[in-house]
Write a structure and sequence with these properties.
By secondary structure, this protein is mainly α. Helices cover about 70% and strands about 0% of the residues. The longest helix has about 30 residues, at about 75-105. It is globular and about 55 Å long. Mean pLDDT is about 85; it is low at about 1-15.
Length: about 280
C-alpha cells in the first residue's frame, strides 16, 4: 500500500525592494514638513521674515535710485525679495534643520536604512524647497499685479536660475551645518554668507550701482550667477546692458550658467566630503 507523499513547502520567491529613491525622498520630506510645522519659530523665520524685509529693501533701493539714473527699481526689488526668500527659507532654515536632525541622531539612524546619503540630504530639504518655491511664485505674482511688471523674457532661464540656486543653497546649508554645533548657533555660522550675498549678489545693492571692477568680482560670488539668471530670464537683462528678447538673453546668460554650475558642483562635492552625520563628542 502506497501513500501520497506530502509536497515539500515552497520558499517564497525573493521580492524586489518596494521603495524607490523618489518615494524615500518624499517620505523623508513629509516627516520633515511635519516637524517644520510644529516649530513656530522656524516657520516664522522661513515665512514672515523675508516678507518683512520688503519695506526695508524698498527704502534702500529708493535711496540708490535717487543717486543712480536709469536704475530699474521694480526689477531690483523683485530680484532682491526673491533672493531674500531663498536665503532665509532654504539656506538658513535648512542649516538649522540639518543641525537639529544630526544632534537628535536622526541622520545617523537614517543611514542604516535603504536611503542613500544624497537621498537623506534631499529628503530633509524638500519642505524648505517647496516653501521657498511657493513664496517665490507669490512674490512673482504679487510683483506682476501690483507693479505691472512685464512677462518673463525667457522662462527657461528663470527655471535654470532657481534650480542652480536651490541645489547650491542646499549644499551650502549642509556645509554650514558641519561647522554649527547647535541650532541656536546657526544664526552665527550662517551670518557671513548671508551678509556677503545680501551686499555682494545684488540683493541690497544692485550690481549696476557698483564700479565695474567691483561688480565683476561680485558676479563671481557663489549665489550671484543664479540670481542674475532669474533677473535676466524675467526682465531680459542682468543690469549690465539693455533688455533683449528670448534669443538675446542666452548670450548674456552663458557666463552666469558656467560660473553657477561650477560653484554648485564644488559645493556638492565638498558636502559629500565633509558633511557630519553624527554630533561632535
Amino acid at each position: 500500500m502506497t501513500t501520497a507523499s506530502t509536497p515539500a513547502p515552497t520558499r517564497p520567491a525573493p521580492t524586489a525592494p518596494t521603495t524607490t529613491a523618489a518615494g524615500r525622498i518624499l517620505a523623508l520630506g513629509r516627516a520633515e514638513a511635519t516637524l517644520l510645522l510644529r516649530n513656530r519659530s522656524a516657520l516664522f523665520i522661513a515665512v514672515a521674515l523675508p516678507l518683512l524685509m520688503i519695506g526695508a529693501l524698498r527704502g534702500v533701493l529708493d535711496q540708490q535710485a535717487d543717486k543712480l539714473a536709469g536704475l530699474d527699481l521694480d526689477a531690483a526689488l523683485v530680484n532682491g525679495v526673491v533672493g531674500f526668500v531663498l536665503m532665509f527659507v532654504v539656506y538658513y532654515n535648512l542649516t538649522s534643520a540639518y543641525v537639529a536632525r544630526r544632534n537628535e541622531l536622526v541622520l545617523k539612524r537614517l543611514r542604516t536604512g535603504e536611503a542613500g546619503d544624497l537621498e537623506i540630504l534631499a529628503g530633509t530639504a524638500v519642505p524648505a524647497v517647496v516653501l521657498g518655491l511657493l513664496m517665490c511664485v507669490l512674490v512673482a505674482v504679487g510683483g506682476a499685479v501690483m507693479l505691472h511688471l512685464p512677462g518673463p523674457a525667457n522662462p527657461l532661464l528663470i527655471v535654470a536660475g532657481l534650480a542652480l540656486a536651490l541645489v547650491l543653497l542646499i549644499a551650502l546649508a549642509a556645509l554650514s551645518s558641519t561647522f554649527t554645533k547647535t541650532v541656536e548657533s546657526a544664526g552665527i555660522t550662517t551670518l557671513p554668507l548671508m551678509l556677503v550675498t545680501q551686499f555682494g549678489s545684488g540683493l541690497l545693492v544692485p550690481l549696476e550701482a557698483m564700479s565695474d571692477r567691483v561688480a565683476d568680482l561680485c558676479r563671481l560670488l557663489p549665489a550671484t550667477p543664479a540670481f542674475e539668471l532669474i533677473r535676466l530670464g524675467w526682465f531680459g537683462t542682468d543690469g549690465s546692458g539693455p533688455a533683449t528678447g528670448f534669443a538675446g538673453t542666452w548670450a548674456e546668460a552663458a557666463p552666469h550658467l558656467a560660473v553657477g554650475t561650477l560653484w554648485t558642483a564644488v559645493a556638492v562635492w565638498a558636502t559629500l566630503r565633509v558633511f557630519r552625520w553624527e554630533p561632535r563628542r
